[in-house]
Design a protein that fits this description.
Largest sheet: 5 strands, parallel
Bound molecules: manganese (II) ion
CATH class: Alpha Beta
Structural class: alpha/beta
Order of helices and strands: EHEHEHEHEH
Shape: globular
Strand content: 15-25%
Radius of gyration: 14 Å
CATH superfamily: Response regulator
Number of domains: 1
CATH topology: Rossmann fold
Distance between the termini: 28 Å
Helix content: 25-40%
């Protein structure tokens, strides 16, 4: 799976271990002009980021090998990846979780189940910001 040569579509990395959630995100993002890269674990996400730095990361906070907040901190501490916007995706959200996610470096925050109407407009805002001013 290599990207089309000369493609300027933004690349979104979706880090999500739940197949049903991944399928939903994939279906929703099909409405946008973007390339989708999928990872089902933190290790796979790091490998993908290294291979092809995405323009945006959608980060499930509950992953099998590392929690999404630790992974977010790791990416935000690294020179080469700190500019990549990260939107947290979380189930079982509780009061204070958004503050915790933002403190870890998450730029955006969405709770599951995802709101299928507002999802794409929300994601697009971060893509526009990612490419803004160039
Ligand atoms: Mn999960």
């Amino acid at each position: 799976m290599s990207p089309a040569p000369g493609s300027t579509d933004p690349c979104i990395l979706v880090v999500e271990d739940n197949p049903a959630n991944m399928m939903l995100v994939r279906a929703l993002l099909a409405r946008l002009s973007c390339r989708l890269v999928e990872a089902t674990s933190g290790a796979q996400a790091l490998a993908e980021v290294e291979t092809q730095p995405p323009d945006l990361i959608l980060m499930d906070l509950q992953l099998p090998d590392i929690d999404g907040l630790s992974l977010t901190r790791q990416l935000k501490e690294a020179e080469g990846t700190r500019h990549i916007p990260i939107i947290a995706l979380t189930a079982h959200a509780m009061a204070g979780d958004e503050e915790t996610a933002r403190a870890a470096g998450c730029d955006g925050y969405l709770t599951k189940p995802l709101d299928t109407r507002s999802f794409c407009p929300y994601v697009e805002r971060y893509l526009i910001n990612a490419g803004g001013g160039e």
